[in-house]
Amino acid sequence: MNTTRGIPERELMHRHFEYELDGLKSNIIKIASLAEQSIAQSIKSLLEQKKEIARQVIEFDKQIDAYEIVIDNHVVDILALQQPVAVDLRFILAASKINNDLERIGDHAVNIAQSAIVLADAPYIKPLVDIPVMADTTKQMLRDAIDAFIHRDAQKARRVLENDDMIDNLNKKIVNDLVVLMRKDQSTIDQALDLIRVSRNLERVADLTTNIAEQVIFMAEARVVKHQGGHEQTPGEEPTQ
Question: Is 120 helix (H, G, I), strand (E, B) or coil?
Fold first, then answer.
């Protein structure tokens, strides 16, 4: 038996593999924290009409992009060198997709920050009530999805999916309310369109968060979740039409 300092080579390889998986998990937690912080700050810049905070969000996005590349390279290295199977392979594949979703969430935070800069110079045409609710719910969904990833908790991931309808309904309400305002007063059009852009970016963040929750279910249970239809596809099952 080959050994290093009395430890069998196979045991050493297993320990190294576990170390790599822990490192990947740690990096996903870090980029998730950055994405969540970026969304929170972009909304803060919007609500307080502070351009400087918005500019910081835009600059901050470089860190998220850099982390995405680090994690992508880490995934490639693990797949090439460790040849994982079964639950470990699902974990790595899920981590790769979650990484991409988190980077895109950072992009939406930048979009919101850009709108916040445009909206910072004039009083709002109406009090911002639903957008803060939408933002708080979306941030909680993201926290819960990442917590489900950390603990491989499929049930918690499913609860994240249940909140997506609430976000969709809030987005529709915000758009409808602003359309009514624009019809009454054309001077509100420019600001209303930017607020609609903010709402739609938050909706997309929620959609990406549901993608993360779906990956957690795949990772934990080998089930492919099609949230749009509420259908879960078990291994070996033919896709529904």
Answer: coil
Q: How far is CA 118 from CA 53, 133, 194, 195, in A?
A: 13, 21, 8, 10
Say how far apart CA 176 and CA 182 lie, in whole Å.
10
Tokens representing 42 are 């972009």
**Angle, CA of 206, 211 and 212, to the nearest 5°:** 95
pLDDT tens, residue by residue, 23-42: 999 999 999 999 999 999 99
Contacts of 82 (CB under 8 A, 6+ apart): 17, 20
* Residue (of 36, 96, 68, 83) closest to 219 by Cα position: 96
Sign (positive or negative) of CA dihedral 194, 105, 39, 127:
positive
Q: Is 173:166 a contact under the CB 8 Å cutoff?
A: no
Q: How many CB atoms lie within 10 A of CB 220?
A: 21
Distance of alpha carbon 86 from the chain centroid: 25
pTM (2 d.p.) = 0.89
